[in-house]
Amino acid sequence: MEKLVIIGTGPAGLTAAVYAARANLDPLVIEGFQPGGQLTTTAEIENYPGFPEGIDGTELMALTRKQAERFGSRFKGGEVTEACLTCRPMTLTLTDGETIEAQSIIIATGASAQYLGIESEQKLIGRGVSGCATCDGSFYRDVPVAVVGGGDTAMEDALFLTHFASKVTVIHRRDQFRASPIMADRVQAHPKVEVLWDTVIEEVLDVEKNEVTGLKVRNVKTNEISQLDVTGVFVAIGHKPNTAPFIGQLNTGPTGYLIANSTRTNIEGVFAAGDVQDSVYRQAITAAGTGCAASIEAERYLESMKQD
Ligand code: NDP
Questions:
Q1: What percentage of the chain reaches a pLDDT higher than 90?
Q2: Of the residues 136, 152, 157, 275, which is catalytic?
Q3: In which region does residue 263 sit, left (phi positive, over 0), alpha (psi from -120 to 50) or beta (all else)?
Q4: Alpha helices in the chain (DSSP H)
Q5: What residues line ligand 1, using a CB cutoff of 6 Å?
Q6: Which residues are 235's β-sheet partners?
Q7: What is the pTM (predicted TM-score) of this model?
Q8: Is the pLDDT score of 42 beyond 70?
Q9: Nearest C-alpha to atom 43 of ligand 1 is from which residue?
């Protein structure tokens, strides 16, 4: 039986692993479907303390993993598909069918990109519709593309795409960005970027051709419909917490994020860290901070079990 299983390898999971390994908890870390987490789809992290020139997201996660391994953390590929958190010992079933028993668990499964949900968009995911500009942006050289959303992710994606695309149109449903002013200003000042305010996508064209050739868009104030010629559309409208195996066992808030009190969930011995329990800050550094806290809480819990 494992003393501590950490699920997820973003900044929360890996920081928890560094702390837990240094505390001799011999943690087993389940890598998840996106090893390294969301930062591996971000080009440059400019706001992680200690890197005045910025650092590549994938590199930051590779370094943190190395640090966790240095102190003895063990890593296992795959995803958790089922969990019994009320069982004693707790059990986790992985994609390959293996079942792991654990005394304590840190859930650091993060959040995933959301899509608009319209039929034509769903049909063209991977065929011109993308949820990750840093993954797919370089395929769109010298062609027009669109970014949907008005938050920091949309701004970051739009700026990143200017390196490749001939033109980037940002489509936002309101007349004001949600993004931080510095990012919004950079986007609006960029000569390759145009913003379509108060606009929503009605349809991604062309499902018949099985590739993106344009967008049918609607101005929400005038209801005017127009067509925008693009060969790629990058959806940057926020994220959904990855909680599927734990639904019905752990308390969640109205938007589905896990509820944690100082990383402690409603089940003893189960802790939550990072974006899966944070709908407010969602930063790499806050995720790392809660990963540290969860590890300390797990250590205290395991210590208290020994004494009982
Ligand atoms: P946000 O929730 O901040 O923004 C989502 C955007 O998508 C909003 O503008 C929202 O519109 C729009 N939107 C949501 N649903 C729809 C829909 N169905 N149709 C059309 N538009 C929609 O998410 P982000 O991913 O941008 O950012 C998440 C967090 O991560 C934030 O705290 C952000 O600051 C942070 N972040 C920081 C970065 C950095 O510092 N380098 C980089 C990226 C993210 P509306 O405004 O009308 O609600």
A1: 87
A2: 136
A3: left
A4: 11-22, 57-70, 119-123, 133-136, 152-161, 181-189, 284-307
A5: 47, 116, 148-154, 156, 173-174, 178, 236-239, 282
A6: 148
A7: 0.77
A8: no
A9: 153
